[in-house]
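Q: I'm writing up a methods section and want to include an example of the input and output format. Could you take the sequence below and give the corresponding predicted structure tokens, formatted cleanly so I can copy it straight into the document?
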Amino acid sequence: MMVMDHRQQHMESVRSVLTTAIYPIQYLINLPAGVGEWLSESLSSRQTLIDQNNSLRAQQFLYATQLQKLDSIAAENMRLRALLDSSIDVSDKILIAELLSVDMKPFTQQVVISKGSRNDVYRGQPILDASGILGQVVHVTPFNSTSMLITDPSHALPVQVNRSGQRAIAMGTGETNRLELPHLPNNADIEVGDLLVTSGLGGRFPPGYPAARVTMVTRNPGQPFAEVQAEPTGKLESAREVLLVWHNPPETNDDIPDAVLDDAGEPTP
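A: Here is the clean output for your methods example:
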């Protein structure tokens, strides 16, 4: 019977009907396994996408951080180039130092720099940036130094008007954007916008360096002196590096005794 069916295909139609009839049952039986396999592939693909997304996010964060670092390095490079360009006219020894800390209190405006006596830094040494004079060293240790800014109330800087040569003393006020020029007579040749440069008097600061720009000149006929204010040209609030200049250093690296300094920060006669 089976041989005849195999040869003559008498039962083919019956098998076809039975196969069609039981197909839904087979489909239902195989459905859990198929759904499980589909879910497994879907979850696997989703997890892969999540992992790839996390990896890409991490790479993006890393690249963004590196880009910020490159921007910082580029800015630092520009600042150092500006410092070196500003030192072209200085024939003495120079050295770049980093700012370690800043004290900008109203009555004490000082900074700590990363060079000290082991680098031959000496008390009274001028510091400047690419825009002008910042201050002078007042205390030295082997590894760092403390510098007083020109805006410190106890600091005084000998200057002269670049246009007319009028000499004056620029006194600190405790404000980073204001200096005062006391004891200038009403007929002094000074105007708003005049550039004040170091005069070199006293031998502490190299002559001809920008110090401030005049912002106010008030002449009162009833007063013997004019009221003059100026704004420092140096970037006192944003400087990160400073330039140390070896201008008329002392014969030794010992601190200059306080007795030889007057209130203006210049040697007494």
